Amino acid sequence: ILMVDEKGKNMKCLTFFLMLPETVKNRSKKSSKKGSSSSSSSSKLPPVCYEIITLKTKKKKKMAADIFPRKKPASTNTTAVQQYHQQNLNNNNTIPAPNWQGLYPTIRERNAVMFNNDLMADVHFVVGPPGGTQRLPGHKYVLAVGSSVFHAMFYGELAEDKDEIRIPDVEPAAFLAMLKYIYCDEIDLAADTVLATLYAAKKYIVPHLARACVNFLETSLSAKNACVLLSQSCLFEEPDLTQRCWEVIDAQAELALKSEGFCDIDFQTLESILRRETLNAKEIVVFEAALNWAEVECQRQELMTTIENKRKVLGKALYLIRIPTMALDDFANGAAQSGILTLNETNDIFLWYTAAKKPELQFVSKPRKGLVPQRCHRFQSCAYRSNQWRYRGRCDSIQFAVDKRVFIAGFGLYGSSCGSAEYSAKIELKRQGVILGQNLSKYFSDGSSNTFPVWFEYPVQIEPDTFYTASVILDGNELSYFGQEGMTEVQCGKVTVQFQCSSDSTNGTGVQGGQIPELIFYA
């Protein structure tokens, strides 16, 4: 027997002679019969038999890093499974070594290795529109466990027996995100693909992934994307997301209407926004937004962007704009000269403004209700003294946090305690040092202890459970009232507001006393 190590080197050579029954008989005859030649007896000997055996030498055991060679990553915390995930997002990898199953202790990790992997794949998907497709491998059992649609597709009564399935209505990145959830139990969402991922999750009935997409959209909701998300939430039948979108659009209507996303909405969503009673916007802003939408819609329909075509694509939605409720200056300098109205419509609206007997109009003539601002008052009393509260360009500041999303529209400030006076106020709202909103304006106080509102140009969105800093720098010659007996927590309707001192305050304002007695907000 020739023994060799794993590299093929001889370790030891042993020879065993196997005595067969016939040979034993011949040898016994040899001893009894003299004169028989040695050569004849030796010819009866059996040939030498040997076998090559691979020895397991006492060497260091090979680890995953040896079996799957890889470059050392920047962060040593990355596991082999995570690296396969990253590779599989770009390639259809196969496992290069045997016994890879032994490297992963849980079924979840072993399933994760199969994500976007051609190894044992029994179906392939060609995903994406023509010209932008990507071929992705799949494993019917894993997919059927993760989705009832895939179960019906592969194991139902009408199961498809195709090796390749085309899916032209789903983006490859979104389909990969869904597969990653099914295989790896991981949710990996991005702002630019979350809507497409939501569509894929809805199509293949993966409810937990769909819920995660909705939560992602709710947390990233802003005036810039609220109109587009409103359109999509109606399409996907997500009432909670729809309600959140309306909250943002109502409170920050002018920002939402001026956003690029507004021009991307469908006609049905346009009508629903123009009908909205609670839009917190000037009607001239609504009118201009509708014209911007009409211009883009003409391009989508491959029409010349003429005034006639703009009116054509707006259709009856034009009469949802409450033109008669505009300020006269806004109408005269804006809508009346836009060319979108007929001569008779322009004349009738001018008569509506000026004549005692008003003509009948097709336009809605009742002003929108808008939103009613709420006021959170943090002091239980106020006072004044002969030597305070004085302003010399110093900052009064306070920090606050809320338990629900709100939109800060402005601050209520104290005025003069020595008769009527005018103040110049620079108000500012910050989060972790980043300015979210600011405005410079003047307000007139009448000498009473009332508070006087100072507004931001646009309401500022405030997320829950995060402290924000409200600041004001007042410039005025007169002493003013100041708050006393401040509260650290105030319940204002359904919103709870917490207050704490701010390091930015250099004029004495804090939780217990000082300026900024009120936060004015929409909720």
TrEMBL record:
Subcellular location: Cytoplasm
Origin species: Opisthocomus hoazin (Hoatzin)
PANTHER family: BTB/POZ DOMAIN-CONTAINING (PTHR45774), BTB_POZ DOMAIN-CONTAINING PROTEIN 3 (PTHR45774:SF2)
InterPro entries: BACK, BTB/POZ_dom, PHR, PHR_sf, SKP1/BTB/POZ_sf
Upper classification of the organism: Eukaryota, Metazoa, Chordata, Craniata, Vertebrata
Coiled-coil residue windows: none
Key words of the record: Cytoplasm
Residue ranges of domain BTB in the record: 121-191
Protein name: BTB/POZ domain-containing protein 3
Gene Ontology annotations for the cellular component aspect, listed alphabetically: cytosol
Pfam families given in the database record: BACK, BTB, PHR
CDD domains for this protein: BACK_BTBD3, BTB_POZ_BTBD3
BP GO annotations: cerebral cortex development; dendrite morphogenesis
Tree of life domain: Eukaryota
